[in-house]
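Cross-check.
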Amino acid sequence: MLWGDLKPVVSVKELMKYMIDPMADNIFNAVGSTVTQQGIVDVEPKTEEDWDKIRIGAVSLAEGASLLKIRRPFTPPGDENNSTGPDAVELSPAQITAKVERDPVEWNARIAALSNVALEALDVVKRKDVNELWDVGENLDKACEACHRSYWYPGEGAEFYQKLRRRLEQFHEQSPRGNTSAKPQKQ
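Predicted model, tokenized:
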């Protein structure tokens, strides 16, 4: 039971941009490897402060996921996503709303998946298990991408990437730098 009315302050897109995504970065950026000229640099939590940052991300994601259950606009007024034109890959806010209304079970399952990964991250933080943190990052990426591919950019499938690859190849062929048979132009 609620102690008061819940009124959304921002759209889903803004909630993602200003809360959920930055907090997810606390988990995504907690582990990694970068190849430099000096060798491989590994990033992993070492201090209590490092683990607290991951904990903050996990708690914020677990609680923030619940905010996605509050009915709210999907985008700010006037924002139609990249949903127009012949190559549009994103759904419009109206299309997203219709999809959620047709199948609220899927929407809630996607929210539960995000929340479950956040709870998994909290468990890993309690145990300070760096190796499992890699798995949490992968699971978080899968939960986010599955939802985005269903609700935000479902048009970004295999055909989209094939078309993009063809366009890049054409661009490369037309570019003076990409065309190895092209002669330098005199200025």
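The beta strands are 32-36, 39-43. Confidence is low (pLDDT under 50) at residues 180-187. Passed to J.P. for a second look.
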